[in-house]
Design goal:
The protein is α+β, with helices and mostly antiparallel strands. It has 3 domains: about 5-50 and about 300-370, conserved putative lor/sdh protein from methanococcus maripaludis s2 fold; about 55-65 and about 220-295, Beta Barrel (Elongation Factor Tu (Ef-tu), domain 3); about 75-220, RNA polymerase II/Efflux pump adaptor protein, barrel-sandwich hybrid domain (OB fold (Dihydrolipoamide Acetyltransferase, E2P)). It has helices spanning about 5-10, 35-40, 105-135, 140-165, 170-180, 230-235, 360-380, and strands at about 15, 30, 45, 50, 55-65, 70-75, 80-85, 90, 95-100, 185-190, 195-200, 210, 215-220, 225-230, 245, 250-260, 270-275, 285-295, 300-305, 310, 315-320, 325-335, 340-345, 350-355. The strands form 5 sheets. Strands 1, 2, 4, 19, 20, 21, 22 and 23 form an 8-stranded antiparallel sheet that branches. Helix 3 (about 105-135) packs antiparallel against helix 4. This is Efflux RND transporter periplasmic adaptor subunit.
């Protein structure tokens, strides 16, 4: 004859009724279970440990380049693109030639610069001569003041022409060579303002462009930003400096900014993080899943998911108490991987909860509740 184990185990189980006052009576019963029964049911318990930080995981995020690491390279003068020396996705160094632009406006600016340089040279000579004559008492002070003013005006005009060519991308070395050799190159070199990656090429060889027309967009990819779509309720608990990670690639960083604008559609807040390590394989515009460390109150505890039972919308753990276990309603406040962060005023670091055999305890609790309900019904009929 076969023996049924579970009925045998359930028969000795009783509900331990407290004799305390009504105000101190727990809301859930004590399930009296011996050590032998707990062992047979696979029930095991352990002490609680403080949570430290929780983890908000799987948040949608997009990889971005920090604004200060982006540069738009524009045409300094109107002209025609003669050649392009780089391609989208290529790594470039600061000062590397990106393209060459032929511009009649460059010839005019160079001619004006040479004329201004000649005028400044002649004005400087006249100023030196009149200063000498004035010191010897040969000319009047009014004349030397006039030559001084002419010299200053010529120097200002030369500086303005130099600045015009510098804005056009002509280097100081090229300006010096222009002044010495008196040669007027018709092409200007478009150079990279920073080291980085060519993100976008807006023109093709042979294309005519206006002044200030965008030619390239260059970005430095270290470090990167992560813009994380965070539920508004969660965002309100975060602080700058919170740890952030992208588990899929092992990238790590920290929160640098928490937005104040809530998206009307998704009811999320943009939380910006800087990735300081492990982001080499990420690309701008890439969508990823991010984790954020979430601070919890000091009375929060970390327990395995398997220690929880859910009934309706409530969550419970089974607290070891004397010769049994008592169901205790708790509040879940966060998640840390395969563990949850919970809180209850009745939990302490000395509290032991069931972490295995929880399904069996739930079954016993349900059976005990049915028995108590049936007994209450019979008592009501007897009255």
């Amino acid at each position: 004859m076969r023996t049924l184990l579970i009925p045998f185990l359930l028969l000795p189980l009783t509900l331990a009724m407290s004799h305390a006052s009504a105000a101190e009576t727990p809301a859930t019963p004590l399930l009296a279970i011996s050590a032998q029964q707990a062992n047979a049911l696979g029930v095991a318990s352990e002490r609680l440990s403080h949570a430290g930080n929780g983890l908000a995981s799987g948040l949608p995020a997009e990889v971005r380049i920090p604004n200060e690491q982006l540069r738009v390279v524009a045409a300094p003068l109107p002209g025609m693109v003669v050649a392009i020396d780089v391609a989208t996705g290529q790594t470039v160094k600061q000062g590397q030639t990106l393209a060459r632009l032929a511009s009649p406006s460059l010839l005019a600016a160079e001619r004006d610069f040479l004329q201004a340089a000649q005028s400044a040279h002649l004005a400087a000579q006249a100023a030196r001569r009149d200063e000498q004559l004035f010191s010897e008492g040969i000319i009047a002070e009014a004349r030397v003041q006039t030559t001084r003013a002419n010299h200053e005006q010529a120097a200002l005009a030369l500086a303005a022409r130099r600045a015009e060519l510098q804005l056009a991308g002509v280097s100081d070395g090229a300006l010096t060579a222009l002044a010495q050799q008196r040669r007027l190159p018709s092409e200007m070199l478009i150079s990279a303002p920073i080291a980085g990656i060519v993100l976008e090429q807006s023109v093709q060889p042979g294309q005519r462009v206006d002044a200030a027309a965008p030619l390239f967009r260059i970005g430095k990819l270290t470090p990167l930003w992560l813009e994380i779509e965070t539920p508004a309720a969660l965002a309100s608990t975060l602080r700058e400096g919170a740890a952030v990670s992208v588990p899929a690639v092992g990238a790590r960083g920290k929160v640098i900014n928490i937005g104040r604008q809530i998206s009307a559609g998704s009811q999320t807040v943009t939380v910006r993080a800087r990735l300081d390590a492990g982001g080499e394989t990420l690309s701008p515009g890439q969508r990823v899943a991010a984790d954020i460390d979430v601070p919890v109150r000091s009375d929060g505890f970390r327990v395995p998911q398997s220690a929880l039972v859910r009934i309706g919308g409530d969550a419970f753990v089974f607290v070891a108490e004397g010769a049994g276990y008592r169901p205790l309603a708790i509040k879940i406040v966060g998640q840390a991987g395969d563990q949850v962060i919970l809180q209850s005023a009745r939990l302490t670091p000395q509290t032991r909860i069931a972490i295995k055999g929880v399904a069996a305890l739930k079954s016993i609790w349900g059976s005990a509740a049915e028995s108590a309900s049936a007994a209450a019904g019979k008592a009501g009929e007897a009255k």
